[in-house]
Amino acid sequence: MIQPPGRRVIGFVSYDKDVSMLKTTALLPLVSLLLVSCASGPSTPRKTASTGWRSFGEESSYTPGGRVQHQIIEKDLAACQGCIMGSSHQGTFSSPLRAFELKGAEHLNLKNSHFDIPVVWNPDVAKWVNYFTGRGREWFVKYAERGGRYAPVLSKILNDNGMPRDLLYLAMAESGFQNIAKSHASAVGPWQFMSFTGKKYGLGIDWFVDERRDPFKASVAAAGYLKDLHDLFGSWELATAGYNAGEGKIGRAIQRYGTKDFWKLTKGRYLKPETKNYVPKIMALAIIGKNLETFGFTELSFDHALDYDAIPVPGNTDLMDVAAALELPFEELQRYNPELIRWQTPPYAATYMLRVPVGLQEKWTAIENKDAFKASKYTYWTQSKSFTLHHVAKENHLPLEVVRLLNPTLDGQLIDGGTQVCLP
Asked: What is the Cα–Cα distance from 423 to 28, expressed in whole angstroms?
């Protein structure tokens, strides 16, 4: 997250390019038994939490196929002129969502002064507006330009799940719309989910996949979490504060001070400065983001809106080989599929829908032998004494489940010394 003015900006690790996944090429000859073990692990699907919210896989409007941009980005979002695309505008203020008018900022001559979340003008908000239009201007430009790619998608998903569109500025505050953002507290993705909360709201997180980094699935999860917080506290100020500090912390603050007024809660010492600054920071980003020209952001070069085709690939598919066959830089394939944190699709998946740049779907369909892309370039480990897979996992600092998945025929037994074990 962006730290308060006067502090170091250390909230998340940001990269201009997605972090490359590690791929190790096997140097040892393949043994028949081990090749079968590595390539034919069980395809049991991972269990995910049931939240009652629309999942990415169930939501037809997010289902890949054709020109996906036409399905995930609404044509009228540009109606908010001078805004980061995806922001609320007059045409989106409809029941059950409310329109909130910004009061007290008439001196700014704002073109857009209505929002679908409460926005106020006070010294705390003004401090952040001054920061992002001054010392933090470079950060705002970077986040806003990246928002051209992702903000419209987040906006539609929030709206589809009954949430205010302007909550996209929470994601801007959390990560700058960066899918691979990771905080020092190990919160991950555009919505900065901690592992426990992400799993609670249906995101799969394991050695192969981290769906907190998926802008679609993470946005559905964030919508669910924010709805629960709003239902709990009854206000968006407290809901967004709870997103930062946790609902328990905000609940205890309410009990301690006997008020549900966020601004009164900030007068006490119980809430951390980060939480006290979090809500006004979001409001400041929304004010600027919906009035770019007013604040001098007239030459932003927005990233192109997200558009992709999707191709079905088998589980345990070598992503580097797929990229090569499609004549696509591997880093670009990673950028389209940030949730995949290894060089292969999950071995437990029967089929994985892989996002690729528009136009490559037909190229993949024309390839007849999809089995040729099965991941096989593993490393191998052995020792002279007998051993177990538990020992192998511990020795190589790997999850036992991963070692078992790649060596199903060796699981649950004492393995003879000299036997080679497949490792990722």
From this structure: 12
